[in-house]
């Protein structure tokens, strides 16, 4: 068969486009299931999603895919490819190699294990009984160790897992960075815990749902979220989903006794959504049409949620508006007191409820445990003890039970090891980006106080969003900030902000 | 390969299940596009739908499908199959043969023609210029004639087209039935047009949308529509979609100046939806998990819309409720006057706006034209004249332009010839079913007046719904009514109802 080089490239791009199409269909069904699909159809719908997901997996490991990879990787052929094709090839090759190295029978067994482990974890958490979950977690760790054997690793076994969520990230970098962060946060936190907490009572007064929604929509619009390319819906566990840059949906949850859930949640998901809406349309139909990594994605949501949404200037501009939407709960509260209340720092047990200063410590606990597990320094059976010791060491509190401790997160039950660090990386990246933004836009804080978000959105679009996965996270960071991962900016941000709020230094 | 018979049957059922799963995914995306998907993602989403639809088509005509058909049709093997597999085999075989007989190049050309013809039709209708559409319609008719040549036919070429929408239906049956219907409706209509029309002004007063919605939900619930297996949304062109029996969604449209659009529209789509919700779960994952035919489906929606929703007894029970939801527009209107107003009969130009008595005449006009086209008795170029003559003959009015005449329907532009008769068949079937229901449930009219719909829903479920496509339309009709297609019941219904309303005999 005398195919031209161009025609192989074209066929390959059509092949990956079909995979992207199947993933988009899965995305629509997933969104639908989470926002209002009738419950009696849910089991059947999950089967449909399973069928499509199996198709995508089969395509990613097919002989046809192997042939494309081999033909296009051939040096004289490779040289003729477009940049987008080259990056696409790199991604599918990475996935092909990851999947093809696992014997099919072992992979199948692992999928079943994941599914069973998730059900058992749910029950174990409910009963706060780690021993129920332990044998499953042992198998999950063991299987992932065996997979690392198949995949290979450089430097540290855990690097292979990190690389799945944050390409290029290593234990060396994280050890150095997280140590520095921890060494600054822990003493700062200790100082804060000696101080009197600001009054927060007024936060927990009834704020009608419809008004919360209207205020959330107002802020989303100001952020530059395009409602012709998205929509806001209600769900139990909020998320944003980028089906294509023309259809990026945000979901939120309303708690009438705590408006922060919806308002900060919507801003957070809105940050994810802006990223996906602003990816270059040239990447549609390729695996590159999403964020550069989990950490970079999280940097966008956290930038908006914290660096903007919890910024004093933001509330200088928005507090009166919030008051006008509320049922009067803030009438007797000054802007300063409101600002302090939404920035309270307090050690707590549950990661997803933590404030921005203590959050990274929750992540570091998990990182150290995962690293220990995959380097045979910690055994699964010891996790409850190790968890509680680290919580006491870093946060000064010990969980009263495993449900509020080692069993709180779903991640491990699905075999997602190496994912947690992304959350802390998101904070570090966000602070680095804010610093570079200030270099390029010296008046950025005034812009926030004046509600001129279009400057910020434009800067993020030009420097981050448009590239999708065309740049690796470290490359993106280097290009924008001129440096690699650096916790100094986050540390400076925390010290400035909280020394002012709590009058500590 | 020594496969057991059971394993071939199992593989075949998995193969068709995958097709059903792809169709369900398409259904979710279609519903989403029509109810609230962001417009900037619509083009991309249509491509995704196209990819999945192409997959389903490829599977229906694949070598693998051919092999299943051949192996399972082999008599000793066939004898071992379950009833569901036998019926499934029959359906996929019919489709395989239909698709496989068309040379691929011709099929591809036809798909392009359909797509172009639809765009041109839209423009032609807007400009009311039949000559623009004429060459496309000629090609569509010509291509379908050539396809009939490939497919073959029995008795009449048009039978092959009828069979696609209403299996077993023939020109002989329709000629006889439609003639009888026409011969009764036309003189009845002529008598009615000499009478004074009841007052309808109060119908067109503002009825707030939210209240229309609440009343529609109230009626849907009474009908037995299961909201845990469905939902009601808003759209431009209302429809019901059965994604699976556990997820059957209804959409409607609200016109604040004419509550009938939403109320009768919701009852109509609710009739379709009850059918799909009550199909036996055993048929999930097969092509049999839908209505027996277009006509039988329409019988369900029309039964609820007209035999119930426009029944005097229904309003005896619901008029006060409707009044309580409205903003007072019916306060000075008696039940009798309301009933007459919602049952006004008046010849009109547009099929989809026609009342129940004149509606079948609109269909008969189209039927006679289609039959003439495919038997070379009518030429496309003469359609505007023929259309207008028939409208004058049956309805006593002549369209002032082609937009309100021959160009009004989308069907022909998509190559859907043979579809229109289903609409009139729906009326005829509905009246036959009502008659049999009265035989089994002598107090059915009292039940309607008392709002005891569960009796009716249960009867429909037992006699119609549960079977899905396990029975052919004629078989279903015979089993339930003890007779074949018979317009007498519809004629009797019309004569009874309208002689009372208009005081004619």
UniProtKB/TrEMBL annotation, chains A, B:
One of its GO terms (molecular function) is zinc ion binding. Binds 1 zinc ion per subunit. This is Metal-dependent carboxypeptidase. Its cofactor is Zn(2+). Keywords: Carboxypeptidase, Hydrolase, Metal-binding, Metalloprotease, Protease, Zinc. GO terms for biological process: proteolysis. The keyword Zinc-finger does not apply. The active site is at residue 269. It comes from Fictibacillus macauensis ZFHKF-1. PROSITE patterns: PEPTIDASE_M32 (PS52034). It catalyses: Release of a C-terminal amino acid with broad specificity, except for -Pro. CDD domains: M32_Taq (cd06460). The keyword Zinc applies. Belongs to the peptidase M32 family. Zn(2+) binds at residues 268, 272, 298.
